[in-house]
Amino acid sequence: MLYRVVFLLFFIFSSINLYSQVDIRIYRISSNDVFRSVRDSGGINESKLKKNIFNKYIIRLKRPHDMTKDVDEDNYKAEDNSQFYVEIYNKSEKRISLEESGISNIVIERDNGSFLHEIEVKNGMKNENKLIFSLNEIADKVEEKDEIHIKVYKEKTVLDEFLVYYLNPWVFYNSTNSIPGFWFPVNMYTVDFEVNKGALFSAAPISIAFGGKIHWGSGMNYIGISAFITSGESFNEEDQLSYLENASIGGMFDFLGIFNIGFGYNIDFRKSEKKLIPQFVLGLNYDILNSK
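RE: above sequence
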């Protein structure tokens, strides 16, 4: 009898210890190709992943108490079709199944605790050693940079909790500012293509733009679309206009924050009767120019 009691206590203690020692890891994967590679290879091995792949396409989510919004919100983002890959390890760093971990469901909530979505671990999934989900079901319920809390449950007990910031497919530049949409392109240049003179490049040191970003795919890739006004120089056969006497107004595309390209019409503030030639506008991101 005593033997049975001891065995029962040992079993209960082992179960409690198992769940307290479970190491749950949730990764956000922002590339469909990388996601398929991870899924087909059977998991994520952080030590074997190339550093640039892990930093650019895969992030391991952090717990809310380990995050600071001003520091982490730009890195820990996810949009509706970003893929989340869940792995569970025991105390011995051995990967275990969903059944062994005791995970019953995952609940997605807002920062105020209001319910958004639930992913249930069904019987046919319990032998799996991974769980995959996305934020598709909450796309129409959240806004840009909302805090999304991902809580992992064993029945009614929260085993772990993670935080990610929601990214809309469309968002204004500097959307958190009091006047969203405005931004200031750097390293801008105007280009005139004249048949007799070839291509003429001129610096445009003062530029302002208004627009937004369109994200695509399962990740942070985007194309920005903006209207702009920028100072510049135009040349013709008789005179040269100064920066303060003319400007280009038009539209441009921003590709991944790497470079900008657009088209504008040069306006002479001196109201000269001479016809000015339309210009192309080019820009290079500051980080690209200064990368090693």
